[in-house]
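User: Good morning. I'm curious how flavin-adenine dinucleotide would be positioned relative to this chain. Could you predict the structure with it bound?
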Amino acid sequence: MTLKDFFIYLSENRFLNSAAQKYGLRLGAQSVVAGVSIAETVESIKELNKHKISCTVDNLGEFVYEKSEAIEAKNKILEVIQAIHDEKLDAHISLKPSQLGLDIDYDFCKENLRDIVSLANQYNIFVNFDMEDYGRLDKSFELLNELNKEYDNIGTVIQAYFFESEENIERYKDFRLRIVKGAYKEPEDVAYQSKSDIDKNFIKLIEYHLLNGKFTSIATHDHNVINHVKDFVKRNNIPNDKFEFQMLYGFRKDMQYDLAKEGYNFCTYLPFGKDWYGYFMRRLAERPQNLSLVTKQVFNKKTNTVIGLAAASFVLGRLSKKDKVK
Ligand SMILES: Cc1cc2nc3c(=O)[nH]c(=O)nc-3n(C[C@H](O)[C@H](O)[C@H](O)COP(=O)(O)OP(=O)(O)OC[C@H]3O[C@@H](n4cnc5c(N)ncnc54)[C@H](O)[C@@H]3O)c2cc1C
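Assistant: Good morning! Here's the predicted structure, ligand included:
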């Protein structure tokens, strides 16, 4: 059992997710979540915009199995789009199809996405379809393809750990694409497992899209990749308006400001909302050093109980899986 497995398990734990909401456990998440309300989020965006940093705004949400929850999420995103327009913010939208009902009903999800993309289109605001785990990959691309017949203000994400991303980067070269390493735990028959294989493919995909694609968002906190890209664009005369760097809100803040100051387009991925728990746990899974974000207040009685219960159910879950194998 690795620490990564443990945090991924925590991120998927519905009990902890609702406990986090109910008891308002913040676990240090406030340093990586831009606000709970739209008003707070608008202030965070304005602050970044002052430093020539644009934002891609993500309404946090997990475990959407009821249509009413998906509609609620859609309405929140519509409100954000309206706020971006009204306040003239330098910002666009990132969304997860599962939050808009992909796991409930494909057509229902498509209608929700259409409402969002259509309003954003009226205001000339871009909408990014974030990519989730492998099980949702084909359907997410299908949604993108279908909506692209009507709208051109949409794009998506290519995850470097998937073998099939090499084909997808070619297939979607006419889209604005965000390229990432990949955040979920995926099986070895579909995804590279080693850091060096993922990093190698990441660079390959970035270079391909920079040379052949529409617009590239290089989303990483990895200084080696960033330095490589700086050098690559210089050698290949790729102008600054063809790409941007992206990082998550609250991570490597100094580097975010420095890149913007150096004249590169920079966009901060800005999560907001009450449903911060799964997002925060995935950040801890991919980089346990991020535990330093967890402040002392975590270790109070209430949080210890919840984390203790989680650890116990994690161990029990693994034991029962072993039993089944036997
Ligand atoms: C803007 C954005 C959007 C994303 N969207 C998606 C998505 O739609 N789908 C998806 O699957 N994944 C997404 N991800 C997550 C992504 O796939 C990776 O899981 C995540 O970014 C971690 O990989 P990394 O490239 O940042 O570098 P890592 O491989 O985590 O780190 C490489 C090296 O960089 C340095 N480093 C990294 N982080 C820090 C830090 N905080 N402080 C100091 N040094 C550090 C360390 O030296 C580390 O060894 C997104 C990531 C970003 C930044």
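The pocket of flavin-adenine dinucleotide is lined by residues 130-131, 157, 159, 180-184, 219-222, 246-248, 251-252, 269, 286-287 (CB under 6 Å). The first helix runs from residue 3 to 11.
Let me know if you'd like a different ligand tried.
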